[in-house]
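INTERNAL AUDIT FORM
Audit reference: QA-55
Scope: verify that the stored structure record matches its stored sequence.
Auditor: D.O.
Record contents follow.
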Amino acid sequence: MIRNLLKYVKQYKRDSLLTPMFMVFEVVMELLIPLVTASIIDDGIEAGNMRHIYIYGALMLVMAMCSLFFGMMGGKYAASASSGFACNLREAMFENIQKFSFSNIDKFSTAGLVTRLTTDVTNIQNAYQMILRMCIRSPLMLIFAVIMCLYLNVRLSMIFLVAIAFLGVCLFAIIIITMKIFDETFKKYDDLNASVQENISAIRVVKAFVREGKETQKFTEASGNLYRMFVKAESNLALNGPIMMISVYGCILALSWFGAHFIVEGTFTTGDLTAMFSYVLNIMMSLMMLSMIFVMVTLSVASARRINAVLTEVSDLQDPEDPIYAVPNGSIDFNHVSFSYQHEGKGKDTLSDIDVHIQSGETIGIVGGTGCGKSSFVSLISRLYDVSAGSVCVGGNDVRAYDMEMLRNQVAVVLQKNELFSGTILDNLRWGNEDATEEECIEACRQACADEFIEQFPGGYHTFIERGGANVSGGQKQRLCIARALLKKPKVLILDDSTSAVDTATDAKIRHAFATQIPGTTKLIIAQRISSVQDADRILVLEDGHVDAFDTHENLLQYNAIYQEMYESQMKGGGDFDRPQAEGGANECQ
């Protein structure tokens, strides 16, 4: 895992190497200063040699300035390396997410991916920066300080070795306990992000149903769970401070007691004892830094696992070795297809033994009850998922034989949930074809009957769309998404209940425009309204993942019970909308 993550240091290797180098120079300067101090005390102050004091005082000043410079440069390069590392991790994760199939995306919640791209990467960034600066500085400081102490007095140095062993055992126990808690903590982060994302994206619904109190309570519970987990983890980590203080003050007391005896005996000097005190602080500071590193690493290990899971996730869908780059026509064949969302085909099939054949240019209606498999059916055509059994062919070739990008450019899908992005209307339309001219965009909007409301906007096609299409209605959003799909000039156009928010008259106009403007395109229309599909060449009736019937509107009315029931319930209820379709209204879209 660590080796895989370190690959993303990339162009920041130089900064990553310069940081510890400057840290080494800083440590050398800091370790030499106590020796200079001891010399000033013993050979300068006690001997009354002012010249010695001036010379070594100036030397100490130069060494302190050098130490400051090396520390600043180490901090600069550490910040550059850690920030660049974090940037590369985010880019790599985002790029890999773009390659995910729908089944890969289903493994990670949206909130979980957001947490990984933000909080988890920030944890890794902080840990990496601390490791670059402290993992070299602290061990070197510790080792050389102990060596200098041994050089000054071996017997007194035993005090430090006992303190180091005591701290090591305590820190190891704390880390083992805390690491398990942090693993659970980041799952709570996902829950909190999910609550925030869901509430903000659906704020209009929340206010419409006066659910602010409930949503606040839901958020408070998620936030409270995260609070309790962090308190539990930090309570364990807080023991680090008292343990460190016990070691520091214990060393100072022991050093003062035994050092005083050695001075009285004449085996130790005052300057050496002063230097020893400086090295005590260096050793304890090094141990404190190491303990902070352990805390940060403990926190970041859980984040590293979550990031690595995204980076190493391989898309379930891969292009073949020798892909086909052209779709001959819009014919569609389902050859005894079965499909399940469960991994490795386990669980109940969403679609079972679907054997349907559609000619190029046909208009096919798809109806059925909720959960019968309509959306799953059309998702297989553009290879958003792979079949569990059988095969799906477009243009006479198995969809698994095509280059996926090319296939999806020729099979345009307007999904059930429509999404618009921040930018102008033209920016959103050009998602279908980034090279489309303004005239082509206008023509696509005419076919989708979107031109009638766009022209009423003060900015026309340059009107700015808020994120998610917040400043347009549901029906307007649907028509813009249909126009966007039409700009791809696809061989197959799939509308997954994509006219549910428009009135019956506009729906009829759109269907009439499709019939006259893109007659060679195969059109699949999923709808809950019989009026949306009754003029289709054939209508596919799905029931519990099976094909219940596949025939014309007239024939289905005669012999298919499910279709009859749907038709009668809608017709007897006065239709789908109170507003009747205007006579000849279909021609108004021209």
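Auditor finding: record pair retrieved intact. The chain has a mean pLDDT of 81.
Action required: none
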